């Protein structure tokens, strides 16, 4: 049942090209995005005043990416919040708001409670859900099904990747309907999204290199992930993967925040992983990385092919194929999933069932 892989997590990592393509294709019709299956009409999309994304864990990290992408493309204000915070906060919700709940299982107690809170206030809700017929899928006004298939490994990989694609298609379609992008840009974004499965496949072909690096780092005490903008959201996910399956303490930091406290934790050989997929922020993050290096850090850079000058500062670099920068998370997350996986394997840990964790958190 593991399809020849040693762990479900590795099997699921390798399923990503397919399930990303399946999820994208499920909302494409005649080469354009069609959200009628999701149940959002053009008029409803035009009337959205604001979007509130609510989720837990990795699904929350998808929400963070969604915030950047939707705001940048569709110019709709987006807030993103942890479900466990949202539900007890008496949030201010506008009647023309759209509340998006992201959940693989569709059963996460806090996410479900947040959905019910929104419904109680008669706010339109959209669930991005993987499990058909789950509570969130049944109760949300609209459902965007991710087609990841059953995810067994406790640490999410393929569901996360399909949730990202769902976010991108919403962003691109909202942008088109609200007149924020031209037809040409619209078709360009769709075409670019269609290249992602193949680019993910290419990254996976190089996994041995990550395995080698991960086995060298298996005794790390702390790992810091730093990035700006979308790259910060990617760092959050990379850091969670590292903690949950490798049991290495890690933190994700918005790179500009380092000097407001965290940099005091950098010692000789501390691993700092810089994520640099956003060209406008590249130099800024590099200079934060260099600050860490001058305090003894060992630097890994994760950046787009072509940014070779990273090698002037980084001790080890992983390149991902070029893509539109809005969609770079789909590629950058892959080496970080592999890092978490291979460190866990090198340490002989139970990769698919890390201690103290459950696949679906149905109690708060
Ligand atoms: C991390 C992970 C969790 C889930 C979170 C939400 O790898 O899997 O952080 O993302 O528990 O679960 P769902 O998406 O089922 O609501």
From TrEMBL:
Compartment(s) of residence: Cytoplasm
Record keywords: Aminotransferase, Cytoplasm, Glutamine amidotransferase, Repeat, Transferase
Entry EC number(s): 2.6.1.16
A GO molecular function held by the record: glutamine-fructose-6-phosphate transaminase (isomerizing) activity
Enzymatic class: transferase
Reaction catalysed by this enzyme: D-fructose 6-phosphate + L-glutamine = D-glucosamine 6-phosphate + L-glutamate
Residues of the SIS domain: 41-180, 213-354
Residues of the active site: 359 (for fru-6p isomerization activity)
Known role: Catalyzes the first step in hexosamine metabolism, converting fructose-6P into glucosamine-6P using glutamine as a nitrogen source.
Self-association and partners: Homodimer.
Name assigned to this protein: Glutamine--fructose-6-phosphate aminotransferase [isomerizing]
Organism: Dorea amylophila
Included range, full protein: 249 to 612 of 612
